[in-house]
Amino acid sequence: MTPRFVLAVVLALAPLLAAAEPATLVRAAELKKEPATDAAKVADLAENAKVDALERNGGWVRVKTAAGAEGWVKLLALRYGGTARAGESGISQALNAARTGSSGTQVTTGVRGLDEEKLSTAQPNAAEFKRLQGYAETKQASGSFAESGKLRAQRVEYPK
């Protein structure tokens, strides 16, 4: 086989390698239209719902539900593979991990942050700042909310 033939086969099979990865929701979550907390809600997903993870974007994962709906959920709401079989106890899972050297569960977290270059070239965005101000509450409204929840003020010192 020539290297060109091997490359052609790999390229032809690449879409199959990018198949969806099965995942389960570890808690109820909103399926969003875009990877953002303020994006429109597509649907509510129940805890333990099975989905196919299609693509990752920062702290969000695009998923497809069993019903065929597609959207974005937060990365930390998903558990990939390694789910326990019905009736499998924690002890049997631990013994299996000791026997095989793997628990079968993979956890990856993290969100791309700002690097030194991005911070040094940052520019103000007046439109986003105005949008952010729309989330602000007055001291009176905040006090009323806290009072309705029977919350009380508590002073917390900054860590040293």
Quick summary of this structure?
The chain has 160 residues and is an alpha+beta fold. It contains five helices and seven strands; from the N terminus they run αβββββββαααα.
What would the keywords be for this entry?
160 residues, 31% helix, SH3 type barrels, 7 strands, 2 domains, five-stranded antiparallel sheet, 5 helices, alpha+beta
SSE string, helices as H and strands as E? HEEEEEEEHHHH
- CATH level-1 class of the largest domain: Mainly Beta
What is the rounded Rg? 23 Å
Strand content: 15-25%
Biggest sheet, strands in spatial order? 6-5-4-1-7
Low-confidence stretches: 82-90
From the spread of the alpha carbons, the general shape counts as extended
Give the count of helical stretches. 5
Q: Number of folding domains? A: 2
CATH homologous superfamily title of the largest domain = SH3 Domains
Description:
- By secondary structure, the protein is α+β, with helices and mostly antiparallel strands.
- The protein has 2 domains: 83 residues, SH3 type barrels (Roll), CATH 2.30.30.40; 33 residues, no CATH class.
- It is built from 5 helices and 7 strands.
- The strands form 2 sheets. Strands 6-5-4-1-7 form a 5-stranded antiparallel beta sheet, with no helix packed on it.
- β5 and β6 form a beta hairpin.
- The N and C termini lie far apart (65 Å).
Secondary structure topology:
Elements: H1 3-17, E1 21-25, E2 29-32, E3 41-45, E4 50-57, E5 60-65, E6 70-74, E7 78-80, H2 90-100, H3 116-120, H4 126-133, H5 139-148
